[in-house]
UmuC domain-containing protein
Amino acid sequence: MLSRRQNQPFARTPRGSARAANRHSPQPQVPRSRAVRSKRSGLWYAIYFPELPDIAHSETSATSLAAQHCQNISDYISLDGDDALVLEVSRSLRYFGGLARIRQSIESGIASHLGHTQYFQAVTPSASASLLIARAGQEAAIGTPEDLRSRLGSIPTHTLAIDLRVRRKLAQCGLFNLRDIWRLPLTELRIRFGRHFSDYIENCLGLRPESRPRWQAKAEYHESFDADHGLHSVQQIISACEKLLHQLEAFLKKNHLCTDRLEFLFDYGHRGQATDSKSDQHDSITVNVRKAGRTARLFLLLLETQLAEKTFAGEVYSITLQVRHLAHFQPEGGYQQKQRTAADRHGSHLLDTLAAKLGSRGVQRFLLQQDYCPEFATRMVPYLTSVAEDDVGSSDSAYTTSHNPCWLLQPPRPLVIRHQQLHYLSPLTLLRGPRRIETRWWQDQGIRRDYYVAANAQGLLLWIYQDLARNSSTQPRQHDWYLHGFFG
């Protein structure tokens, strides 16, 4: 049962002392700051698509296409799920000449991008209220927060953007419409349904500022170079590509971006010249780097390396540079950046050049994994494989280079025992050990080994082990000692 205070209207000053009024009224008695007023005086335009149209041959959703068009109206756009969006239009009213012009521009843009699609629109001073009205299948235009209470009263509670369990509790309490909630004091709502619900109700009534994540379009770069005459030599093509790369560098620096993948498209067909096959008039080269950058000199060096072995089918009349993988640039100076020395950075440029020369899989590198078994603790991956910095050389990895060598033999080589002494080119001397590794006991063939560091007369440092699992078996084995790796 609800308490006696349920008959006191929500968000209105109840009868009683000033202390009781301050306790039950959600509106603060202190004067609001200028920043809060500016946030609450906004105007939010919500668009809800009950049935999203199918966009063939496109990676962009319907709401993203609508948001791209709404960028011409407002710079503050936020997506709400996959079927709704909201934009702030109070600063655009003067430029467009009123809300009617803004609505006309939005409807024309949706019709041109999505065709005849059903959608609902709502404009209120609250983003949550606009989305709530639109998702309820209604349309409204409310200019002041004082009118939100009466307009939202008829909306059922099962359409609220809250947790399903809270909606069930509201139905069990007999609260089927928002006008039933207005009769409850704010403190009772917080106690019975949680603070998130009470904050959501305050957002719908415009009693508190909202902070919604901004939507940003997927950044892409596209630039072309059209030659007046056909480019037949590699030097002419490099000169044209150099201009495109300098333009790309200026764009990346201006927008504080970087990239790790560039694609050059070469067009052999002259303007106005018809060809039989489209596949014969285009060619492409992809430039990859492991660590994203924005330096035209590095990209040009990698491009020259690939162009040196490229054979073109004819004269090139157009070159197009496309960049689809853009990321925010992180300048050097952080903790992880300080750990990388200048030699590491120059070494990465050298490896990028070798990868461009030998191919994407021509240069391999080690990747540590969380496994105590030496055979599975490392794996080789192509150098250009994008791997997080925390995954490479992680201190939490079971495989440590201070104990294990990087050069492992696959499979391990059996050692010969002569005169009760291990031999590899010469008798071996055990320097350090044993170090037991026992793992994968849950599999059919578990691992139980004692590892030693040994040396021979030739000065080689060897990593050997004794297979205890085979040694304890019923059938004796001839080879119980194995050579597993070499130390540098």
Summary: Residues 234-255 form the longest helix (22 residues).
